[in-house]
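Our consortium's second objective concerns turning raw sequence data into structural hypotheses that experimental partners can test. To show how far this objective has progressed, the report includes one record in full. It was chosen at random from the queue rather than selected for favorable results. The single chain below, 170 residues long, was entered without modification.
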Amino acid sequence: MRMARSWLGGGAALLMGLAAVLTACSSQARSGDAAPAATAGPSVHPFSGLPVIDLVITHEHRRHRFRVEVARSQAEQEKGLMFRTTMAPDEGMIFPMPGGQPASFWMKNTVIPLDIIFIGSDGRISNIAANAVPYDETPLPSKGAVSGVLELNGGRAAQLGIGPGDMVKW
């Protein structure tokens, strides 16, 4: 609140300047000069409401591109892909884990099979729990500390040849 009040106290000139900048930006976007949506930054997933970003897995000099939902908060991570009945082949969900820590996932209330990909602090895949069984509450652990966990459709990693040691960037 303190920042908002001091900003508004700056006067009408500041507000008019901001309006001019916003108008210029919006007219530029309408003119077709804007970058395509896939590179314009995060969008929002229609089902979860979570931000959606680009993620790339590099396997033997091949790049596999995905659009993934970002589950940052504890509540978002606890829900994950529960109750989801479909997911496109190039979609997934990333669970960032700042600071690196061991992780363990399960499939409680998860309807579709998933590949759970554990990403080490070096950005490389440490291990994959492939084709995790829907509704199974057996813990699926990482091999050591991870900086993130990626969930893709079950079998997708094997289909693309993705495995431990491959680089993940998001």
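The partners drew two points from this record. Confidence is low (pLDDT under 50) at residues 1-39. DSSP finds four helices and eight strands in the chain. Both points have been shared with the crystallography group to help prioritize constructs.
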